Task: inverse folding
């Protein structure tokens, strides 16, 4: 399945965007965009796909994505069917490379952050104390003025680049070979998982989609996907 390029909303009186996304479920398709994205899920559970990584999310899940990295959040069926007790909700921050000027990330003080941003091409789930600190700041940012928001974002940058409490998501092989142009076999497997994420998928079934023997597919899957349990 080919990722769709998404045009994100912009506010021309702001250098970066902070907003609350709320609805019965998260509506975005498998997509990518040129902005960096920090996503905090405040309500809802489901499956997230980042590159070739498939994992589960719940309340408090915090993920940082680099530019043009395909991704998708799929809410659990009770949200999609309108049977959940609450609406799905997330707080999202978007910014581009030059949002503070062309040379901002070239400043000597920004070197640790620049290195961290390089890792974001894989996407990363942030954990532990770093996650708690960033979650608290993001919730407060919705009610801050412009200068306060900028100061809070710089604090988030400091927390992220000073922490090792994160897990990279998309595999090195995926990032190396392309974030947008997957092989036909890889695309078919990814699309099948996306369509049937809420079903029990047998090895024989998914191996046939990839036109592989079960043993060969197991090696392929191990190399290209990393699936996380709840």
Result:
């Amino acid at each position: 399945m080919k990722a769709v390029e998404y045009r994100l909303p912009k506010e021309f009186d702001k250098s970066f965007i902070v907003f609350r996304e709320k609805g019965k479920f998260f509506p975005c398709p498998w997509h990518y965009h040129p902005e960096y994205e920090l996503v905090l899920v405040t309500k809802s559970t489901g499956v997230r796909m980042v590159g070739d990584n498939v994992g589960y999310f719940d309340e408090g899940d915090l993920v940082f994505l680099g530019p043009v990295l395909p991704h998708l959040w799929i809410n659990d069926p009770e949200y999609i069917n309108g049977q959940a007790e609450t609406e799905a909700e997330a707080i999202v921050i978007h910014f581009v490379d030059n949002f503070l000027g062309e040379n901002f990330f070239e400043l000597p003080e920004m070197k640790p952050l620049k290195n961290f941003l390089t890792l974001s091409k894989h996407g990363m789930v942030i954990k532990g104390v770093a996650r708690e600190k960033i979650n608290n700041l993001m919730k407060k940012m919705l009610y801050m003025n412009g200068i306060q928001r900028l100061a809070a974002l710089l604090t988030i940058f400091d927390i992220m680049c000073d922490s090792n409490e994160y897990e990279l998501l998309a595999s090195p092989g995926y990032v190396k070979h392309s974030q947008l142009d997957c092989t036909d076999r890889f695309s078919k497997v990814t699309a099948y998982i996306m369509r049937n994420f809420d079903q029990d998928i047998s090895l024989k079934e998914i191996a046939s989609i990839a036109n592989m023997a079960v043993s060969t597919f197991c090696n392929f899957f191990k190399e290209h996907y990393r699936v996380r349990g709840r």
In short: The two ends are 25 Å apart (CA to CA). The chain is about 35% helix and 25% strand. The chain has two domains: 16-168, 182-227. Residues 20 and 91 are 5 Å apart (CA to CA).
